DNA sequence: GGTAAACGTTGACAAATGTTAACGGAATTA
DNA sequence: TAATTCCGTTAACATTTGTCAACGTTTACC
């Protein structure tokens, strides 16, 4: 399992990992399997782990007063499931993260992530690049939300993240877009006529 | 002008600045005054500068097919105006940034920001913390956009960024929230009755 | 293999939001 | 100071989106 992570890290950084660093990574990242709907994080908990997804699919969501779920992130292989704010600031999270499919992941704690950030230059670099990418994607999403119609947002997710549509049901996609599943269904039936 | 920036940096980092570092910062950050509506950045340009606002107000926005503006960021004193993606990746920006009020700012180039990141530990730390804060705020905004009504989003901006309401007209606030100025006006008149 | 849950869709109706137009007053500027 | 633009609001109406209910199908699970 760790090979996949090593490969990922190497691909995303300029400096190669030494053998010792590879060993450290293997020790620090602990494999865990999540069954369907098993939680990585629940609301009001502090996010203890950052999870690198080896295989499977997870989702992050908030739950409103009426018990409705609102999807903030969808995560597939070779990406991270974590509430960065809670993980970084050690504050209680507003979100849930759970497995949508049976999922294999590698978990790292906050303490260990600090340790490796101070020890392995490639990891510091990686973390920084990931945080940036995350922020870029979020601004893009905010801009979509305030400037595009539901249909245009759906078009965009189809182009930007086609794999989401293959792996998650439509009510999850609708929630991610900030609309109801009925509205998404209508958009799709209109587009089918064209 | 630089004193305000020095104070800001010191307040946001754990290690104090040396006299030499203070001198370097004074050289690297160049003051510039923006008249009302003067651009810091236009669409399709690469964002050459990150601007620290000493006094004034700026806004970042996209412009859609119909020429309508959609506000992505509002920036007041002691914060930054910059398209982080364009600035970091050297890619053409999708956004405009201009001064809403007459604004005094300190500008730094990408090249100089790399230089100081490598030289001044406090600046590396600051940059990292700012990027994190930015991402946290963006996720919060995405979550608001997909899970709250227009009225609830308005309530939230009143609590979170009350100064925006004092410094920007309501059509700007409406755009930031992703609604029209008429809808915001109706929300306000309803709330006034309560 | 049978039962229950999840999924995607559709219809009727309600609610929220957008569009267009108009207005008075405030702020800006020539 | 006069003219003009900007601002915030309101009204009437159109459009989009949500809500509730129902349905057949697929999928998951015991």
TrEMBL record, chains A, B:
<dbReference type="InterPro" id="IPR018490">
    <property type="entry name" value="cNMP-bd_dom_sf"/>
</dbReference>
<dbReference type="InterPro" id="IPR014710">
    <property type="entry name" value="RmlC-like_jellyroll"/>
</dbReference>
<protein>
    <submittedName>
        <fullName>Crp/Fnr family transcriptional regulator</fullName>
    </submittedName>
</protein>
């Amino acid at each position: 399992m760790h090979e996949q992570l090593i490969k990922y890290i190497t691909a995303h950084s300029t400096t190669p990992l030494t053998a010792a660093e590879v060993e450290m990574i293997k020790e620090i990242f602990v494999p865990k399997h999540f069954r369907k709907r098993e939680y990585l994080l629940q609301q009001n908990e502090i996010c203890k782990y950052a999870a690198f997804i080896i295989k499977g699919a997870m989702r992050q969501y908030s739950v409103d007063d009426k018990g409705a779920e609102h999807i903030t992130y969808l995560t597939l292989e070779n990406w991270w499931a974590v509430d960065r704010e809670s993980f970084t600031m050690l504050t209680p999270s507003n979100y849930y993260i759970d497995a949508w499919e049976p999922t294999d992941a590698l978990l790292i704690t906050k303490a260990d992530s600090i340790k490796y950030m101070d020890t392995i230059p490639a990891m510091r670099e990686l973390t920084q690049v990931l945080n940036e990418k995350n922020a870029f994607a979020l601004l893009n999403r905010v801009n979509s939300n305030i400037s595009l119609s539901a249909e245009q947002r759906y078009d965009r997710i189809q182009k930007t993240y086609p794999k989401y549509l293959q792996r998650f049901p439509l009510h999850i996609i609708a929630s991610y877009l900030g609309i109801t599943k009925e509205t998404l269904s209508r958009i799709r039936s209109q587009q089918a006529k064209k």
